[in-house]
Structures are given as C-alpha cells and as structure tokens.
Amino acid sequence: MGLRDDSDEAYVVDLCNRILGENASTQHGFDWLLGDPGKSGRRAKLPVDAYWPGHQLVVEYRELQHDQPMPHLNKPDRLTVSGVHRGEKRTLYDARRDPDIPAHGLRLIIVRPAHLDADGRGRLRRNESADLAALQKILARHSDEDRVTDAFRTWLLADGWTPVDPTDRWTDLEAVRGQERLICEAKGRTSEKGIDADIAYGQLLRRMTSQDPHIRYALVVPSSSMTAAERVPAHVREVLRIDVYEVTVEGRVCKQTS
Most C-beta atoms within 10 A of its C-beta, which of 130, 190, 199, 209? Predict the structure, then answer.
C-alpha cells in the first residue's frame, strides 16, 4: 500500500528520497514485525512508513496523534481487536516498532512535525528548503557511519584494544594495545562507494606522520563498500600498513585477509 501523494508523510518521505538518493519502499512490512492477532487469529505484518534497503534505514513520521490524545481520531468508545481503542493501539504498535527495528540491524529515525516547519496543529507548511536542511541534519546525526564506528569500537574492546583520544582530531577512532596503535577511518553506506573509499584512503595517507612500525591503519566499511575498498591491491595496503575491516549488517566485524 502506498502513501497519499498529498499527505505530510508522503512529503517527508519524498524529501528523504532526495537526500538519500534512493526511493523508499513505503508501508513496508517485515516478516518479524507483526501486529496483534485478528479475529481469524492471523497476525498481519505491521508496516513501517518508509524503508530504504540500500541504507538499511527506516523512517517513521509521527504526527501529533502519536504523542497527544485526539478523541476524534482515537475513537475511545470503540475497541480494536487488541482490546484497546485506536489511540492506545497506535501507542502499543509504536512501542513494538521502536526496539524491534534496531534489534534487526536497521537504523530507525523518528521524525515529528516539531522537527520541521509546522503550524500549531502539526500540519507542515511545506517549506522545502528549511525542511530539507532539517532532515539532512537529522539523517546525518543517525548516519550509518555511526553504526559502523560503534560496531568496530565494540570489536576492538573485545579484542583487547583500548580506545584513546585520537592524535589527529579528524580521526574517527584510535586505539592502543601494548606497543601497538591503530588509527581508523570509518565509512557508512553510501551511493558513492568508490569515491568515498578513495577519500578514506587519502585521509589515512595524510595521517601517516609517524614512522613508528607499531602503528597500523584501518579502513572500516560496511559490507556494501568492500568491493570499492579492495580496489587498492593487497600488496599496496600491506606496504602502507592499512588493514580493511568489514562491518556486516548484523554488526559483525571481519578483517580482510587477502
């Protein structure tokens, strides 16, 4: 089921499409996200507002009725199959989406009217330039690079490394283990995988200011960027002491060995 073309939700999703460079699957259902049983006992998929597979991202646009009681919409005198009125059911389903979506390796971003140019009733004024700028900041705060960096930091700790304040303030992550030091550049999912990988290698090269043989460098990328990261031949990476690490959708970290 698609969105009404004139709805605020459709407007927000369209702006996100433009920012992300990918068209969302709207009202998308996952096999693992289900509503309450209906009269037949069957549990239907609980849809999300928009899903971008290439970014492993879900965006929920939560209008005022998700946070404020609205009797004309909630119809408190009518109970749903869940045994509660429509407003309570909406709250229950939101509470189900919020933990389950990240638990399955997806990013969840919740956008509300207050985040954009809206009137007192929560209706968007459709100020495209202001709304685009606001959404770009919201999406950047929850970037896939954060997911990749967090997963790699967790892996480092489990492998005996200790994260430290980076020598270069632009370094994404730096860690030590005994005499060893690892300087890391992380990238998230992107529509420009090759360009981003080339930029990352350049950033690592600029940080090679020490000749200490105990220092190695790490390029940390999601699975979707591994092909681009491996365009630099393995023997060249070894000379430069650069290791490539893959972070899977599930958050597993794998060091490239060839």
Answer: 190
Neighbours of 90 (CB within 10 A): 18
**d(C-alpha 132, C-alpha 138), whole Å:** 10
- Tell whether 151 is covered by a domain: yes
Do residue 91 and residue 118 come from a single domain? yes
pLDDT in tens, 56-99: 889 999 998 866 655 544 455 554 555 555 667 888 888 899 88
- Kindly state whether residues 133 and 163 are assigned to the same domain: no
Residue 135 shares a structural domain with residue 155: no
Same domain assignment for residues 16 and 129: yes
Q: Provide the domain limits for residue 101.
A: 8-142
State the burial class of residue 137 (Cβ atoms within 10 Å of its Cβ: 0-12, 13-18, 19+). exposed
Quote the strand ranges of 41-159, DSSP E.
48-52, 57-61, 107-111
For 33, 83, 107, 188, 223, the CA distances from 51, given in Å and listed in that order, are: 13, 29, 10, 17, 19
Q: How many domains does the chain have?
A: 2
| Per-residue pLDDT reduced to its tens digit, 203-236 | 999 999 999 999 999 999 999 899 999 999 999 9
